[in-house]
Specification:
Elements: E1 3-8, H1 13-24, E2 29-35, H2 47-51, E3 56-59, H3 65-75, E4 79-82, H4 89-94, H5 97-123, E5 132-138, E6 151-152, H6 155-161, E7 166-167, H7 184-203, E8 207-212, E9 214-216, H8 225-235, E10 239-242, E11 248-253, H9 254-267, E12 272-276, E13 281-283, H10 284-300, H11 303-308, E14 320-323, H12 338-343, H13 352-365, H14 367-374, H15 378-386
Helix pairs in contact: 1-9, 3-5, 5-7, 8-10, 10-13
Bound molecules: nicotinamide-adenine-dinucleotide and 2'deoxy-thymidine-5'-diphospho-alpha-D-glucose.
Amino acid sequence: MSSTYLVTGAAGFIGSNFLDILVADQEDKRVVVLDKLTYCGNIMSIRHLIDSGRIEFVKGDIADRELVASLLDRYKPQYVINFAAESHVDRSVDDPTPFIKSNFEGVFNLLECCRRQRSAQLASKAEPTLKKYVQISTDEVYGDLEVCAPRPGHKDEAAQLGRTYEMYGEDAFTESYPLKGSSPYSASKASADLLTLSYYRSFGLPVTITRCSNNYGPRQFPEKLIPLVINNILHGKVLPVYGQGTNVRDWIHVDDHARGILAAARHGKPGEVYNFGGYSEKQNIDIVKSLIAIVKDAAAKMPSVAAAYPAALDASDSLITYVTDRPGHDRRYAIDALKAMTTLGWRPLMRFDEGLASTVRWYLENLDWVKSIVDGDYRDYYEHMYANR
Ligand code: NAD
Ligand code: DAU
C-alpha cells in the first residue's frame, strides 16, 4: 500500500538531501513538502524534485494552524517528518525570537494538529492514519563535554562500525543523557523534544525523536563552518576560527543522517529517541586546515574554478584568523549511536576524509548555488557577524 509523507523544512540542507534519498527508495509513495522558505530554505535545492513531479511543494509556516490542519486533512499522511527550524547557533545568540517561534511554537502546532486529527479519527472509530511523527532534533540538546587528548574509541562501537575511531574524551552522549542546551537554539530544540515526548505519554501520538551530530555535505548554507570556509578560501578571505579552534564536533555525512531518519521513521519505536553520529570527532582548527589543502588542490584541477577564483590557488594557513569566541561556545559533542546501530541496523558509512573531499567538489561544481546566496542578504549577515569579532 502506498504511503504519504509530509516533510516539513525540506528546502533546507538536511531536508533536501533526505528527499533525494526518500524519493530514490523503492517504496511507492507520495511526498508533500511544507517549507516557509526562510533565508535558509532554497527552492533551488529541491527544484529537480518539483519539476520531475516526485514531490508536491507548499510554501508555508509549520506554526500556521489552519494550513497544517488543512494539509493533514487533505493528504492524511502516514509519516510527518519535521526538519523545519531555525538552525544556526550564532543567529540564536544574536536574536532568539524566531527560534522560539519556529522551533518550539511551530513544533507545538504540528503536534497539536496531528493529535486533533488522530482523536477525531478515533472518535469516529476510524483507524488513525498517522503511523509516525518524527521530530528531527540535535545532539546540542545534551549540552557539551570536556575536551581531552585524543584516545581510541570504545570497542563495542568499533565492532559495530567495523573500524576504529578516536575520541577527544571518555564520554559520549547516550539517549538518556540529561538535557542541558547552552544556546537559545539548543534550548528551543530541547523544549520541543520534551513537548514531543509528552504527546506520546499523554495522547499516545506515535512520535520518534532523532538526535544527530554535526552534518556536512551538499547544500549547507554558508553561515555554517564548512561551507563558510570553502567560500572564503575561494575569495581569498580570512578564515575566522572562534577562540583557540580546539572545540570538537563529531561530523557525519548528511546522507548517513538521512538514512538514519528514514530507518527511525519506519522502524523506530514510538516514544523513543535515537542518536546518530559519524564517529568522526575533529577539532575545528583541523577541519579548517584540511579544507585549505582540499580546496586548493581541487581548484587547481578545475580550470573554470581556477579562472574564476584565482585566490584559491594561493590559499595557505596564513588565512586562518583567530577571532572572539562564540558566547557559551560548546566545547565538545560526541554521540553514542549504539542504540541505532543495534536496533535499527543503521551505521554511518561515509569516511570523513572522502566525504569532505566530495563535499568540496560539490561546492566547486555548483558555484551558481553558492553565488545565489553569497551575493544576496548574506553579505549583510557576514558584515554584522564578523566585522567586530
Ligand atoms: P536549515 O536551516 O538548512 O533548513 C531549515 C529549513 O526549515 C529551511 O528550508 C527553512 O526555510 C525551513 N523553516 C524554518 N522555519 C520554518 C517554519 N516556521 N515553517 C516552515 N519551514 C521553516 O537546517 P538544517 O541544517 O537542514 O537542519 C534541519 C533540522 O535538523 C533542524 O531541525 C536542525 O535543528 C536539525 N539538525 C541539524 C544538524 C546540522 O548539523 N545541520 C544536526 C542535527 C540536527
Ligand atoms: O551538533 C549539531 C548542530 O551542528 C546542529 O544542531 C546545528 O543546527 C548546526 O548548525 C551545527 O551547530 P554548530 O554550532 O556546531 O555548527 P557551526 O557550523 O556553526 O560551527 C561548527 C564549529 O565551528 C563550532 O565549534 C563553531 C566553529 N566556528 C563556526 C563558524 C561559523 C568557527 O570557528 N568559525 C565560524 O565562522
